[in-house]
From TrEMBL:
This is Predicted dehydrogenase. SUPFAM superfamilies: Glyceraldehyde-3-phosphate dehydrogenase-like, C-terminal domain, NAD(P)-binding Rossmann-fold domains. Transmembrane segments: none annotated. One of its GO terms (molecular function) is nucleotide binding.
Length: 311
């Protein structure tokens, strides 16, 4: 059985995570790697035994099943559009783009090309998040009353994520980098999100990303949503997504810890019921014409609209 082939464009931290995942996947594998940083490209090419390309054209000539784009956000659109023109399907890192108009353009280009699209939202492929989504969908929390996202970062960029763009107002900040993961979940809980009011704080330096945000919105079904984010304050890093229902509440803490409260009882840690297929398993299904759990460029553009409304 032939493996599903992936071209990896972008040799940053997340690009390396993709390479690491693919190195152990039985049915998918990286066949080429490209990055404009020649030193980093060579390092990861040797580490994961993946051939290095000298140009995007060289990547596209290999006709991979999927092109993964893990570059800084403002380069997502031109690379994706070039891949569509080459007749290739695209997996893109989040956020879809650095702003809403560009994300909408990418979604339109994808639709016009007829190519398959997907986005890298890793927590969607975690058992904890699937349990949360399933319990809400099955009415186990009762009627939805409110959804809240709260995030604190003692410093931004985070120590492990130092690069030239992650702290910039043009492309970076925690609203672009972290919030899309949770906006995607919040949108699936009860329809898309509209921001009704917000306050976003920025440092004096116009080149630097936001330091705080407070916002209120609602879903298409009228469920209130609340956003709070703070960077640079005295605190440990903590991210909490809380879903309140009339009968029970659930809380996702720091990406992977799931808690549940019944009635007026306290939150208690709970575990997911069963493992779920990973992203590359779903991409294989999609490529084979089967039903698959993915985030399309169209959904990614809707998420980008919420991100821009918070900035």
């Amino acid at each position: 059985m032939n493996k599903t082939t992936i071209a990896v464009i972008g040799a940053g931290i997340v690009g390396e995570r993709i390479l690491r995942t693919l190195s152990g996947h039985p049915e998918a594998g990286a066949i080429v790697l490209f990055d404009t940083d020649a030193d980093r490209l060579g390092e990861l090419s040797r580490k994961y035994s993946v051939p290095a390309a000298r140009s995007l054209e060289e990547v596209f000539e290999l006709s991979p099943d999927w092109v993964y784009i893990g570059t800084p956000p403002r380069y997502h659109a031109p690379i994706a559009e070039a891949a569509f023109q080459a007749g290739l399907d695209v997996l893109c890192e989040k956020p879809l783009a650095h702003d809403e108009p560009t994300a909408a353009r990418m979604a339109a280009a994808a639709e016009q090309s007829g190519r398959l699209t997907a986005m890298h939202f890793p927590i969607l492929y975690s058992p904890t998040v699937r349990t949360l989504l399933a319990d809400v969908a099955e009415g186990k929390l009762g009627s939805l009353m409110r959804v809240e996202l709260q995030a604190q970062f003692p410093q931004w960029p985070r120590k492990w994520q130092q690069n030239p763009w992650i702290g910039t107002r043009e492309q970076g900040g925690f609203i672009r980098e972290v919030f899309p993961h949770f906006i995607q979940i919040m949108s699936r809980l009860s329809g898309g999100i509209e921001i009704l009011s917000k306050r976003t704080d920025y440092p004096d330096d116009p080149a630097l990303s936001e330091t705080g945000v407070l916002a209120i919105g609602e879903t298409r079904t009228g469920v209130p949503v609340q956003f709070g984010g703070l960077a640079g304050a005295a605190s440990s890093e903590r991210i909490e997504l809380t879903v309140y229902g009339s009968e029970a509440a659930m809380k996702l803490v720091n990406w992977s810890e799931l808690y549940r409260a019944e009635g007026d009882g306290p939150f208690e840690k709970t575990g997911p019921e069963s493992p779920v297929p990973g992203l590359f398993d779903e991409l294989i299904r999609l490529k084979n014409g089967e039903e698959a759990e993915i985030v399309t460029f169209s959904e990614g553009a809707a998420i980008q609209k919420v991100v821009d409304a918070l900035l």
